[in-house]
Amino acid sequence: TKKRGCNGLSYTLNYAYENHLENHPRDEAMTINLSSPDMEGNGLKVFVEPMALMNVIGTEMDFLDTVMTSEFTFTNPNSKGECGCGESFNV
Q: pTM here?
């Protein structure tokens, strides 16, 4: 998460490389385990910065691909509110 948007925080995604933990040793690494090992994305690693961890605990991330949009969506049980466009939130 980054401090920005009209409601305080926003989700920020960046690419990570194989040596990510060498350059960012304090980041938390989580591995995505899907119901079938053959599904695309199974074993994918997600890194979370320590300062953001308390803001995203329990958050579910999904990818939505429709005729109108292709985007990651976040369902955060800690969120106390979002801006009108849904780009930022507060906890």
A: 0.68
